From TrEMBL:
<keyword id="KW-0863">Zinc-finger</keyword>
<dbReference type="InterPro" id="IPR039360">
    <property type="entry name" value="Ras_GTPase"/>
</dbReference>
<dbReference type="Pfam" id="PF00779">
    <property type="entry name" value="BTK"/>
</dbReference>
<dbReference type="Pfam" id="PF00169">
    <property type="entry name" value="PH"/>
</dbReference>
<feature type="region of interest" description="Disordered">
    <location>
        <begin position="164"/>
        <end position="184"/>
    </location>
</feature>
<keyword id="KW-0862">Zinc</keyword>
<feature type="region of interest" description="Disordered">
    <location>
        <begin position="199"/>
        <end position="219"/>
    </location>
</feature>
<feature type="domain" description="PH">
    <location>
        <begin position="1"/>
        <end position="89"/>
    </location>
</feature>
<dbReference type="InterPro" id="IPR001562">
    <property type="entry name" value="Znf_Btk_motif"/>
</dbReference>
<protein>
    <submittedName>
        <fullName>Ras GTPase-activating protein 4 isoform X4</fullName>
    </submittedName>
</protein>
<keyword id="KW-0479">Metal-binding</keyword>
<dbReference type="InterPro" id="IPR001849">
    <property type="entry name" value="PH_domain"/>
</dbReference>
<dbReference type="InterPro" id="IPR011993">
    <property type="entry name" value="PH-like_dom_sf"/>
</dbReference>
């Protein structure tokens, strides 16, 4: 079954789940987010990998379809499950159950039911998102996401710091050991400046995140 996988580049935007042969290729829409009915893990024995997920969705004719996506690691798998569940959590027609296996031959590999249209033998987890997973996160990626978020609100932080510093109750700037400011906001701005300098001195660092994509996956 693993040989049937095709290497594709998936993109999750605010409107649809799309795919293409390469990141620069013209993308084809796999499904609109409003048509997603479930995003769940696939049991390891189905494809010989514990990093496979399935997206159950309705096609244009109203029929139920399933796409299987193989992720590189558990962190990527959980990020995709979390993202897809968040964008579809208010969809009508969400499934309450699903098959964690695949329909192979004449039966489901998980429960051995012979009806391919059977509703499922396990409960879906549409409200379980990344914050509730116990699997270890990619700390480098999480730190990078936080850094990019701080860059986006830096102007607001500096304006707030300016207002507080110029307020009627503003006093002399207190410094700790080594001359570092004790004001928490000033400390945060200083750390952000240090991080910016570190990124400038490391041209081989991570490229900017594509703003039009919520998430991308090569599978």
């Amino acid at each position: 079954m693993s040989s049937s996988f095709k290497k594709l580049h998936f993109s999750l935007t605010t409107e649809a789940l799309s795919f293409a042969k390469t990141p620069s290729s013209k993308k084809s829409t796999l499904t609109k987010l409003a048509h997603i009915r479930a995003a769940e893990k696939v049991e390891e024995k189905s494809f010989g990998s514990s990093h496979v997920m399935q997206v159950i969705y309705m096609d244009d004719a109203g029929g139920s379809q399933t796409a299987y996506l193989q992720c590189k690691c558990v962190n990527e798998l959980n990020q995709w499950l979390s993202a897809l569940r968040k964008v579809s959590i208010n969809n009508t027609g969400l499934l309450g159950s699903y098959h964690p296996g695949v329909f192979r031959g004449d039966k489901w590999s998980c429960c051995h039911q012979r009806d391919k249209t059977d509703l499922g033998c396990d409960k879906t987890r549409s409200r379980v998102t990344l914050q509730e997973w116990n699997d270890p996160l990619d700390h480098d990626l999480e730190a990078q996401l936080i850094y990019r978020h701080l860059l986006g609100v830096e102007a607001t932080l500096r304006e707030k710091h300016r207002q507080l510093s110029a307020g009627p109750e503003a006093g002399p700037v207190l410094t700790g050991p080594g001359g570092a400011p004790e004001d928490p906001l000033a400390q945060l701005l200083q750390v952000l400046q240090d991080l910016r300098e570190a990124h400038r001195s490391n041209p081989a660092g991570s490229p900017p995140l594509e703003p039009s994509h919520v998430l991308e996956l090569q599978t």
